[in-house]
Amino acid sequence: MPPLPVLSGREIVKILERCGYVVMRRESSHIRLACLGRRSVTVPDYRIVSKGLMRKILRDAILSVDEFNYLRKGKNQA
Known about the structure:
Elements: H1 9-18, E1 22-27, E2 30-34, E3 41-44, H2 51-61, H3 65-77
Antiparallel strand pairs: 1-2, 2-3
């Protein structure tokens, strides 16, 4: 399994938006995203999101680490 990148909450939100998630609301330091056919996801707006929390977000979003890394690197290739 490829390693999880160390990212901020805002970077995670941008990547999730690429796979269809939309920001529904923002409360304090948490951003709530929703997507048809998938669970809603809450992402903390932290400078660094821990790897354990990152795995939880990916599990809720029904994304593998490979899929997430592919979406993350997509911006560099375009």
